[in-house]
Design goal:
Shape: globular
Distance between the termini: 38 Å
Number of helices: 9
Structural class: mainly alpha
Mean pLDDT: 94
Order of helices and strands: HHHHHHHHH
Number of domains: 1
Largest sheet: none
Number of strands: 0
C-alpha cells in the first residue's frame, strides 16, 4: 500500500479533490476517508519498520525478510506502544507526534467503522487528512536512526529485567 495514494483516496472520498461533490458527502464516504487516513498512518509505519530494519534498495525490498517485517506490525500492539508516553518521550518531536496521531487515527477509524451513530463533517475529515499528511511528511524527515529505534519500539514487546 502506498500512503500518498491512501491520502489521495481519502480526499476523493471526502470530496476534497479538484471536483468536490455538490452538497453534503455521504457518511459512508466520510467514514471510509477516515479509514483510508488511518491506513496511510499504518502503512507508513509498516514501511518504516521494513525499510529501516532490512533496507530500501530494490533488492532489499524483494527479500522475504522485508515482507516479513512489513507484515509483522500489529495494530493493537503498535497502538499500545504509541500510547506509552514515557517511552515516546525518548524520540524526537516529529516521531512523538506520529505516535500520538497513530493512536488518534486508529480510535477515529474504530469509531467510524463500528459506531453506527458516528457522524462526521467534510470539514473535520479534510482537516484530519491534511494533518495526517503533514505528520507523515515530518515523520519521514526524522533521523533514520531514530525511526529505526521507533520501528523496534512498535514491533517488539519491552521486557524488563
Amino acid at each position: 500500500m502506498n500512503p500518498p495514494d491512501l491520502i489521495d483516496s481519502a480526499r476523493q472520498r471526502a470530496g476534497g479533490i479538484s471536483q468536490p461533490r455538490l452538497g453534503r458527502p455521504r457518511q459512508t464516504d466520510l467514514q471510509r476517508a477516515v479509514s483510508d487516513t488511518y491506513y496511510a498512518m499504518f502503512h507508513t509505519l509498516a514501511g518504516c519498520c521494513a525499510n529501516t530494519l532490512v533496507g530500501t534498495s530494490y533488492v532489499a525490498r524483494r527479500r522475504p525478510e522485508w515482507r516479513q517485517i512489513y507484515r509483522a506490525l500489529e495494530h493493537g500492539h503498535a497502538r499500545r506502544q504509541c500510547s506509552n508516553h514515557r517511552a515516546l518521550a525518548q524520540f524526537p518531536p516529529e516521531i512523538q507526534r506520529f505516535g500520538e496521531h497513530f493512536v488518534d487515527t486508529q480510535r477515529l477509524r474504530h469509531q467510524s467503522d463500528y459506531n453506527p451513530e458516528s457522524s462526521l463533517t467534510r470539514r473535520e475529515v479534510l482537516r484530519l487528512i491534511g494533518e495526517t499528511e503533514a505528520i507523515i511528511q515530518a515523520f519521514d524527515r526524522a533521523p533514520a536512526d531514530r525511526r529505526r529505534a521507533f520501528a523496534i519500539h512498535v514491533l517488539f514487546r519491552t521486557r524488563t529485567a
